[in-house]
# Entry
Amino acid sequence: MNRFWDKVRQGFPDECWEWTGGTRNGYGMFAYEPPLPVSAHRMAAYLHGLIPSPYAPHDKLAHGFIRHTCDNRLCCNPAHMLVGTYAENHADKIERKRHPRTYGAHGGRLGYNDIAKIHTMRAEGHTHEEIAAALSCSTRTVNRHLKTP
Ligand SMILES: [Zn+2]
# Structure
């Protein structure tokens, strides 16, 4: 896969390895099996055996979504990637942005697992009321988290 790595500026193991080819939405894109482009960072993860396919899973509950620990969308360094479900990635994003409206029933912050659970339960088809009951928080809190992109 030299055609791929030629476009990655590889540095030291702890540095970001940025994609130098074409991009879409800030993510590097690579024509894997033309004409189907894949995200460059997913291709890097695939070539390193982190995920079974360079294509993103259709099922949001599936394991196999990549998140960057460095927040650099162009980064193709597998050491800067974590594999998880869509919900885990989403919760991680909120947690790291220090989302200001992350409060539980008694004014405490909802934890990483709580936020992941909101998205997982919603994806499984539970109502906002059921999710709120499961986490003993208000439906407004559940609504707020589900509205966050
Ligand atoms: Zn990086």
